[in-house]
Design a protein that fits this description.
Blueprint (H helix, E strand, L loop, with lengths): L2 E4 L9 H13 L3 E5 L2 E5 L3 E3 L3 E5 L3 E5 L7 E6 L2 E8 L14 E7 L2 E8 L6 E4 L2 E6 L2 E3 L6 E4 L3 E6 L2 E3 L6 E4 L8 E7 L2 E5 L4 E4 L1 E7 L2 E5 L4 E4 L10 E6 L2 E5 L8 E3 L5 E3 L5 E3 L3 E6 L2 E5 L4 E3 L4 E13 L4 E3 L5 E7 L1
Parallel strand pairs: 1-2, 2-5, 3-6, 4-7, 5-8, 6-8, 7-9, 8-10, 9-11, 10-12, 10-13, 11-14, 12-15, 13-16, 14-17, 15-18, 16-19, 17-20, 18-21, 19-22, 20-23, 21-24, 22-25, 23-26, 24-29, 25-30, 26-31, 29-32, 30-32, 31-33, 32-34
Antiparallel strand pairs: 27-28
């Protein structure tokens, strides 16, 4: 039978010991659940959910990391999961420390976050690195000081679906392949999510390939609503083989001079860690049945460096500058612009 451990709330100032002890015991027994009844669970340091172990809240259980720089809930190994839980930080200043994230999937396989809410973290609310076959579903991330959900370090075969990301300090959803890691993010679905009031982009795709961005609603961003590019400043790869279908973007690019739906690209090539090279030019993008309603800059933009951008049924309206600006000769794209 799967192991079951219940950690009761109480007057303790630091639950790190009993929580980690219960998580380790369940993992050592071959898997099961650690259940947190309703209540508050302050802790210091990081908590680690390991192989075949689920950390489950129930009706109002809150994890309260006390140190904004080292409060991550880390998932690693095979089949770790967190469900029905709130992680509420207390950060006031942004940091780039990895363990300042809310939930961190690191070298995990078949990890799952389901109905988890993360707020007030000093780094990304959810960070996915070096992980495979992950699912982030029905989660809410808000009022964090960096990205909402950030997928990187060659993570692949993942789903981010049915989530809400709002009032975060950077991109609401981000897929990023950095050249220093030598690996692209691959085979990820970003679908049926809602993003609101982002301080940067809504959905960012830098250095990811074989990606589906479908059925999302982005309502209010300071920069582009959807952003595909290769960035030299962050030394990223370029994205390719991306489907952008059936998304709705409203009131985007409020402060940054990006088109609301931006497809850029670079020149040259970058080396991969396992050998070979990948082009800095964006290629093979399907863009269909998207609605962009309100952009502080241009509406839809396709750079000259982008190749093979195709699709139809896109609607652009209420853009401050050019509704549609396509500079790529290798693109066959239809978009209707209205006032």
């Amino acid at each position: 039978m799967p192991e079951l451990r219940i950690v009761q709330p109480g007057g303790a100032e630091d639950f790190a010991g009993p929580l980690q002890e219960a998580l380790d015991a369940v993992a050592a027994a071959g898997g099961g659940e650690v259940v947190l009844p309703p209540g508050d669970y302050p802790y210091r340091g990081i908590l680690v959910v390991k192989d075949r172990t689920t950390l489950r809240g129930s009706g109002g259980a809150r994890l309260l990391p006390q140190d904004p720089d080292t409060g991550a809930l880390r998932l690693t190994g095979e089949f770790p999961a967190v469900r029905e839980l709130v992680l509420e930080g207390r950060a006031e200043k942004r940091t780039g420390r990895g363990d300042a994230t809310g939930v961190r999937l690191l070298k995990a396989k078949y990890a799952e976050l389901d109905r988890v809410r993360v707020t007030r973290t000093a780094a990304a609310a959810v960070f996915v690195g070096q992980s495979e076959h992950f699912r982030i579903v029905n989660c809410t991330v808000h009022d964090c000081l960096a990205d909402g959900i950030h997928v990187t370090q060659g993570s692949r075969h993942g789903q981010v679906m049915g989530c809400q990301s709002f009032d975060n300090g950077d991109d609401l959803f981000a897929l990023v392949g950095y050249a220093k890691d030598g690996r692209l993010v691959e085979h990820v679905v970003i679908a049926n999510n809602v993003g609101r009031n982002g301080k940067a982009r809504g959905i960012t795709c830098l250095g990811a390939r074989h990606v589906a961005i479908t059925g999302n609603v982005i309502d209010g961003t300071d920069a582009a609503g959807i952003y595909l590019h290769q960035e030299d400043s962050y030394d990223t790869f370029a994205p390719s083989d991306v489907a952008i279908v059936g998304n709705v973007l409203r009131d985007v690019s409020r402060r940054v001079t990006h088109a609301g739906l931006f497809i850029g690209g670079g020149r040259g090539q970058k080396e991969l860690a396992d050998g070979g090279k990948v082009s800095n030019g964006i290629a093979r993008v399907a863009l269909s049945n998207n609605i962009l309603d309100g952009s502080g800059d241009a509406g839809l933009y396709v750079a000259a460096e982008a190749g093979d951008v195709a699709g139809g049924g896109n609607l652009v309206r209420n853009a401050r500058h050019d509704a549609v600006r396509i500079r790529s000769w290798g693109s066959e794209l239809e978009a209707l612009a209205t006032d």
